Amino acid sequence: MTKLEEYRPKSISLHLLPLSSTGLPIITIFVRSLYENSNLDRSANNRKKIEEFSRSSRDKLVQSKNKMFSKFTSILQHAVEALAPSLPLQEDFVYHWKAITHYYIETSDDKAPVTDTNIPSHLEQMLDILTQEESERESGETGPCMEYLLHHKILETLFTLGKADCPPGMKQQVLSFYTKLLGRIHQPLLPHINVHRPVQKLIRLCGEILAAPTENEEIQFLCIVCAKLKQDPYLVNFFLENKVKRPDPKRPGVEGVREDLASPDTGQPQAEGQAAESPEEPKSAAAQSNNNNYNIVTSLLNLTKSPDGRIVVKACEGLMLLVSLPEPAAAKCLTENTELCELLTDRLSAFYKALPMSMDPLDIETVESVNWGLDVYNMKDDAAIFTGKRALISFLSWLDYCDQLIKEAQKTAAAVLAKAVRERFFVAVMEPQLMQTSEVGILTSTALLNRIIRQVTSEALLQDMVYFLLGEEKGPETLASIAQNPLRHRLIEHCDHLSDEISIMTLRLFEQLIQKPNQHILHSLMLRSLEERNYLENKPQEEREPVENGQPHDFIDLEEDPLFVDDFSPENRLSSPDWLSNSPTHSPYHAKPDGKTEVHKIVNSFLCLVPDEAKSSSHVEGTGYDTYLRDAHRQFRDYCGICQRWDWRGTPKAMEKCDLDSPFFEGHFLKVLFDRMGRILDQPYDVNLHVTSVLSKLSLLPHPHIHEYLLDPYINLGPGCRSLFSVIVRVVGDLMLRIQRIPDFTPKLLLVRKRLLGLEPEGLNIDHMTLLEGVIVLEEFCKELAAIAFVKFHASASTSP
């Protein structure tokens, strides 16, 4: 037997099986019944599947035939239109419109997408006809096709079809039609009631659903409306809807302003008695703006929440166009009846809170400048990545948008928006961070504030930011009142913080602040304390201390510095444009007929302050006094350009008008700076650089009282008063005592200077390094003050008659 036969089933003998009454084996009957039942079930299932398959196949076949027929019809239509003789434009326009309305009359399948119909083609043909008609007519003349569109309320009908989205995708087609119509037609359409009313209704449909398939068409439509409003701002009054007068469609029997959607046009002729309505006059709604809806702003605000970044940027652009409209009613409605303020401040706060609690100030300062809308960041390609860079760029990008929006906004709207940023972001979010006690938190928040100050350019936002930082007080500052504004007091105190990093960062913040074009900054920090000139001696001439050779008895006769050059090359000379009229004049105590001699005396007063044994610049090439002249000239010119529009006096306030009896207080800010300057020999090199940098920038300001107080060595100070010159004199006195106790002082000083300039490699530590670095900074600062004094006096002499 083969192996195959072993596995074959063996036959069963039927005679061995029990028989039934019919004579057949019972197993045979059982098998036959099972077979018949299974066949019946199988045939029923198969029949059902065949019927379902046939039905779906028929549906697909019908749809395919309809789609093929639709495409064939469209192709045939285009061929007929190309070959047939051209009809007059109006007849052609009416034909296309009636073809659209006949579709709704004849079709029974409302589920087929609009792209499977001829509707898009007919709408495009209508647009082409309107464009052609306008190009063939004189500017401003309305043709019969446009008259037909307005008279038969075609835009109203299209709005109804778009709102119902019938057939599917019709809303996109309607939005595209509106956009192209407003974009292609040059004559003003929005003043017509049958245009701006359906446009307003369509605006309400935009932004209703986030990430809707029509978002792209919605934002394009809204932006073209914004562009039209920018061209003719008065039209915005058509889009300020009165909430009181709008009827509630859910309340039956309410009589109000009825909308013309009840009888949409179907392309059939109207009754002869019906005439086109005249354009509706916009309401002068300035007094009723609290009851107005600004729906286009609301729709744009909704689209700023889109997950698509391109949609967000376009929505922001539209908002920027709307805020710049000069209409007062629109500006008031924008700030009072929309959530624009909340959007700006809430998003700004959210981006700020997303920043890490600790960041390197250098990273914050050096991150590339960010323009809103161009917030494109690729982490893989970034070689200078650090923790929080993505969040920092997002914050700075949105800050830039807020700044630019307020800069472009109508004046009253800008003030409201800036105030909202101040209250909802600066006060609510930033102030607690600046007032904390954690040194790491203080350093990070101060660095961020410094970056914000540097980036803000809008006048309104800068003003509110300054009020937030320094307060709004304008009266003279007293020692008892310096703590009235806790944040201002804390920031100024941080200039003299135990942490050198915090001190440096805060000094840089104030250095950035005093360069901003805002008058209140300088008034708050300095001018209100110097306004009455009560730092001067108030005694009559006969009661003053005796003088010798025209100077007080305690005045040190300073020798001329050999580095001072009396003549200057023509390129270093200042021209005399109008901005020099603000330059200070000579002090009455030492006015000389020869202005040049006076400059010579004042410059040498600063150059001779540092004793010869403490000078090291003469031993290094390119470090003379004249190197500061060019920078002083440029910076003074820049400051004069900034201060030109301020109401600063050209000459000091007359002594008889000054309140010299009131006690003098230099102000909290100058007090901290003078205290820091007095410790210049004991402070780190970087701290000294920033202290002197702030003082030199204050000295450059073209205000006569600032010049007199900071740059005039010859003023007679009142009892207990100090000036910048007197502070430096005390430092020099201390220095002369210390020099005697340090062996080889001058060689060590020169070595330190060369190391700072990179002319000598770092070697062994040098004793008294802090003192030596402080002496070098002091010498350079005196040369800088001398250059500033020369430039300012020379400018004054050039403009004097």
Automatic annotation (TrEMBL):
Family: Belongs to the FHIP family.
Disordered, as annotated region: 249-289, 575-594
Positions with biased composition (Polar residues): 575-586
Organism the protein comes from: Oncorhynchus mykiss
PANTHER family: FHF COMPLEX SUBUNIT HOOK INTERACTING PROTEIN 2A, RAI16 PROTEIN-RELATED
Domain of life of the organism encoding this protein: Eukaryota
Segments of skewed composition (Basic and acidic residues): 249-261
Full protein name: FHF complex subunit HOOK-interacting protein C-terminal domain-containing protein
Domain (FHF complex subunit HOOK-interacting protein C-terminal) ranges: 666-758
